[in-house]
Structures are given as structure tokens and as C-alpha cells.
Amino acid sequence: MALLQNRVALITGAGGGIGRGVALAFAKEGATVVIAEIDESTGLQVEQELKALGARALFVKTDVTRKASIEAAVQAAVDQFGSLDILVNNAFIPTPNVLLEDKTDEMLESTLTSSLWASWWAMRAAMPHMRKQCWGRIVNFYSIDTETGAWLHADYNTAKAGIVGLTRSAASEWGRFNITVNAIAPTAMGATFFKLAAENPGFAERSAAARPLGRSGDPELDIGPAVVFLSCEMSRYVTGETLHVDGGLHLPGYNSRPAHVPVREY
Prior knowledge:
globular; 7 strands; 9 helices; alpha/beta
């Protein structure tokens, strides 16, 4: 039997990049997938891709910056398929890459809302359904950027630090309902990777070389299986963990200081 047979999963931001890769991996393991995505064209395209694989799939237009929209997506999954077993909080809205002193309150608010608040809302909406069936899997998305204090990502780093606290708190409290809650810190060739590669000659090669495995990750083949693991019975005794899926990048870490910023300024 496939690892996610008869399971219903909701994945935010599944219209592209890592979210799409996870959705494809889930479909191939028998899951029914709800694509909670704001972009209608990409969301519908992924829905058709999953159906072509023989999976049940549903696109639900979802704005993760709005609590009501997230709650509606969760309810749509339950109404359409009868349950919600797995929640993957992947979506976030990037802000301009600028120094901390140039980040605005609005940038921080946007990042906190689309990442931390969105995960909070989705988890609290999904929990009653998981509790009712005494089974649930929640996978939140963390980032190595927080660990390295990545330059130009101060608001993102702040939000992702909150994700770890939320993940651990939920794992601690919701274990009594047989709900596991874990975080994944992936790096892969998603939309941001290809944008940086197009704008910075040699970026793709440097990115691959920075990893002990010597290559950059594939959203479906490298990241997807790790999320499948955290979403199936094989991880039944794993909760509150943060799993790096980055080709070993977290071992050496990385220096993200922009070349135009002096080492010392007075």
C-alpha cells in the first residue's frame, strides 16, 4: 500500500516550487491533495497534474494572509473529502532583500502574517478535525536562513524562528490527540532559486558546491519524500523535530554578506 493511501492533505502554496514538489510526491504515495494556493492559474494546473497521476485533487483559492480564507480552505477539504489528515504549511510572501535597517514595519508584518500567523491559523483550524479522528500530521516550514542570520532576510528570519516555537509548542500539547507536529528546513530549486540564478551568473554552481552532497535539491525528488516521511505512519514516534533537508548545507553553513557591504563601517 502507498504510504499516504486514504489520507487527505492540505498544502499551502502548492501552486509552484517546493509546494508543488511536495504535492506531486504526496499524489504518488496515494494522498488526496488540497492545493491551497492564491494563484488560480498555477493552482488549477497543479490540480490537473495530480489528477493525471490518478490522485484525487482539489484547488482552493487561498490567501494565507487572511484567517477566514485559510479556515475556508480547511473546511473545503473536509466538506469535499470527509476529513483532513495532513497539513503542510509551506506558503509565504517574500519581501524585498534589503538590510535590517532598511526593512519596514510593513515588511515585517507581511512576513509574519504570511508565515507565522498563517501557520497558526491553519493549525488551529485543522486540529479539531485531527483530534476527532485521533490522528494527524502537521509539517511546518523552517529555514536555515534563521540559523545563519542570513543577510537581507531579517523579517523572514524572525518569522521562521517563531515557526520553531510554534512547532514545539503544538507538538508538546497536541501529542495527547495523536497529532505529530514537525518542522522541515529545506533548500531546493524553487522559484527563488531560479530567480537568483537568472540574476547572478554562477549562482547555481556556487549553491551546489556549498553543499556536502555537491548539488542543489529537487522539490519533488529530494524535499517531497522527507515531507512524506513526516506525514505517514513511519514517523509515528517523531514529533517536535526540525529536519534539515538541504544536502548538508547546515553543516558548514554559509556567509550571505552582500559583496557591496563593507566588513566594518564607522
